[in-house]
Design goal:
The protein has 159 residues and is α/β, with parallel strands linked by helices. The chain contains five helices and six strands, in the order E-H-E-H-E-H-E-H-E-E-H. It has a single domain (41-156), classed as Rossmann fold. It is 42% helix and 21% strand. The strands form two sheets. A four-stranded parallel β-sheet has the order 2-1-3-4, sandwiched between helices. It has a two-stranded antiparallel ribbon with strand order 5-6. The two termini are 18 Å apart. The structure holds 5-nitro-6-ribityl-amino-2,4(1H,3H)-pyrimidinedione (INI). 5-nitro-6-ribityl-amino-2,4(1H,3H)-pyrimidinedione (INI) binds at residues 29, 31-32, 63-67, 88-91, 93, 97, 101. Catalyzes the formation of 6,7-dimethyl-8-ribityllumazine by condensation of 5-amino-6-(D-ribitylamino)uracil with 3,4-dihydroxy-2-butanone 4-phosphate. This is the penultimate step in the biosynthesis of riboflavin. Keywords: Riboflavin biosynthesis, Transferase. It catalyses: (2S)-2-hydroxy-3-oxobutyl phosphate + 5-amino-6-(D-ribitylamino)uracil = 6,7-dimethyl-8-(1-D-ribityl)lumazine + phosphate + 2 H2O + H(+).
Amino acid sequence: MATANKNLSAYDKTTIPNAKDLRFGIVVSEWNEAITEGLYEGAMEALLDCGAKTENIIRWNVPGSFELPFGAKKLIETKPVDAVIAIGSVIQGETKHFDFVCSATAQGIMDLNVRTQVPVIFCVLTDNNMQQAIDRSGGKHGNKGAEAAIAAIKMASLG
Ligand code: INI
């Protein structure tokens, strides 16, 4: 069972469905690229560890987190995928921009989950500062990309 303070990279492979026949889309935001690349690597490592094949994984880039819902929607509409992972990193600045980007991105991704048949996983870090993002993209709290990959496998195998 998931707990609040678990390491984001921790999973018990014996409880995860095999991903060998599953197809994944990964949409990666270019904002805070060092962080989103870390998340992408964490996601890829966990997908492959659980049996996914590289030829069944499509990566698309988008400019920022705000563009993730459109990227995920277009990917679902044009490619045969069983789950999409939307990767982004939003870091608090001096203005309200952070709040608008975070809420629009989360809402846009939730809309897709309700409207389409393909699960879209929310792998967007929303941090107060760069250190918090580093800690969660392969640092001391693990990698949210790995957590998202496991969620994608579970959701693609649901039912
Ligand atoms: N996009 C992010 O993914 N992270 C951020 O921290 C960020 N900040 O700070 O502004 C950000 N802004 C860009 C936004 O996502 C859109 O790309 C832009 O507004 C164009 O639509």
